[in-house]
């Protein structure tokens, strides 16, 4: 009996191993096709685009010029404001002086009439009465304008408003440091001291003790 030999299958050659996938190739897509529309390059982290140096220099130069122009305009406006304020202040002061001068014109006219009276035909009492009338009228006008007279007998001595030129013995202790007499009145205008009042001030001195009588007297 004839034995048949088993036919062996031809050996299939083994496939070469595939190269490992690296990190660089893992996210890479297919190679770009010529003529195809490529996707936009993503912006850097944070979404900020890098400005070219030349464009940045040009932009900063323009901003600097704008700031210089603004500074010059502000300086000119401030200078005009100072000049306008000084001019308005001078005009206000001139108007105030003119108003005071106008308010005393009537008193000046009255004083002129008194000064030109005929001394031979006018009694001295009439001249004195005319002068006193002018004085009261002038004082009333200046008081209404803001002038305040300082110094009166019996006032408490105030070093900010009085100038003590002499002292006098006080009759009582209660009159210590009171104005005894006014030698020259002072004046204050609008809160500003024009001239202190020159006054004499009472000073109290304790009387010397009286010796007690000796025993037997």
From TrEMBL:
Keywords, ordered alphabetically: Chaperone, Coiled coil, Cytoplasm, Stress response
Region (Disordered): 1-52
GO molecular function, one term: unfolded protein binding
InterPro entries: GrpE, GrpE_CC, GrpE_head
Coarse class of the protein's main subcellular location: cytoplasm
Gene Ontology cellular component list: cytoplasm
Ranges in a coiled coil: 57-84
Statement: the UniProt record of this protein carries the keyword Cytoplasm: yes
SUPFAM superfamilies registered for this protein in UniProt: Coiled-coil domain of nucleotide exchange factor GrpE, Head domain of nucleotide exchange factor GrpE
Cell compartment(s), UniProt: Cytoplasm
A biological process from GO: protein folding
Annotated Pfam families: GrpE
Skewed-composition ranges (Basic residues): 1-10
Function: Participates actively in the response to hyperosmotic and heat shock by preventing the aggregation of stress-denatured proteins, in association with DnaK and GrpE. It is the nucleotide exchange factor for DnaK and may function as a thermosensor. Unfolded proteins bind initially to DnaJ; upon interaction with the DnaJ-bound protein, DnaK hydrolyzes its bound ATP, resulting in the formation of a stable complex. GrpE releases ADP from DnaK; ATP binding to DnaK triggers the release of the substrate protein, thus completing the reaction cycle.
HAMAP family membership: GrpE
Subunit structure: Homodimer.
Protein name per UniProt: Protein GrpE
Record organism: uncultured Gemmatimonadetes bacterium Rifle_16ft_4_minimus_7
Lineage: Bacteria, Pseudomonadati, Gemmatimonadota, environmental samples
